[in-house]
Amino acid sequence: MYYNNSSVIFLNGKFVKANESSTDLYSQTLHYGYGVFEGIRAYATENGTRVFKAKEHYDRLKKSCELVNIPFDYTTAELVDATYELLQKNNLSDAYVRPLVFCDPNMSLTKPNNVSIMICAWEWGAYLGDKQLRLTVSSYCRPHPRSIKIEAKVCGHYVNSILATSEAKDNGYDEALLLDSDGYLAEGPGANLFFEKEGVLFTPKLGNILPGITRATVLELADKLGIQVKQGLYTPEELESADSAFYCGTAAEVIGIESVDDNKFPKNWNDTVGKKLLEAYSQLVRESEKTLSTKY
Ligand code: PMP
Predict the structure, then answer these.
(1) What is the ipTM of this complex?
(2) Which of 5, 154, 181, 248 is in the most buried spot, having the most CB atoms within 10 Å?
(3) Which class is domain 8-122?
(4) Does domain 133-284 sit in CATH 3.20.10.10?
């Protein structure tokens, strides 16, 4: 599903066949989840493929490495170029791109000396589907920011996400909603949360969540559309009394939330601020880049 006999990946500066590439089973990343990754989307536009927010994603990859002491010497420009080349080699346009920085063999709990980078891509439809989501508040909370670097996209953090999503699905819901360790609203397992009340949007402030690139884009779009947004610490009760809500993320894009623990939001999704933002987002990602200089 993710690759076939002709798929190519970028591995440490070279393009190699996906089914002929391998990794060392003693990698520190495999044993301890000590690696970092990104999730990026590319879109077909009138002027060819556009890797959306490519610079922001590779800057975050670099920042994630710095935050957890993983050495990383690629520049954003090199990796953006490699991504465009990768998509071309795989004949992909509308695609999901997954860069992963992983460590050399090391069974000690020490910083790595050497790392590898791989970038792969495949066609991936809307990650959470296109129907509004039925959420449940997870029994798992997001990791405390003093336990990990919550703002870094570290492989091991996603065990928390996998546990939350599996629990939600096992209980018959589409997806989980996680609180922070103080009981305030945090985020989804792979998406940020917004909710609407009397025309104003609310979203958890940075600090206990991944600073989503889609979240930042939604904030920019809301500003352009004259929608007021407040960022703060909000309780599940505040969400319960909201008019509507949505998740946003690179893979999920912008997707409405129908209910949380079977409490339905009263507003029809088509009349919400979220729907307006979904339309603006869908349009923005397919706008062609005018010049190559906007690539980085
Ligand atoms: N929160 C978490 C935990 C995530 O994994 C993601 C997906 N990267 C997001 C939020 C949304 O981030 P972005 O918009 O940068 O994809």
Answers:
(1) 0.99
(2) 248
(3) alpha beta
(4) yes
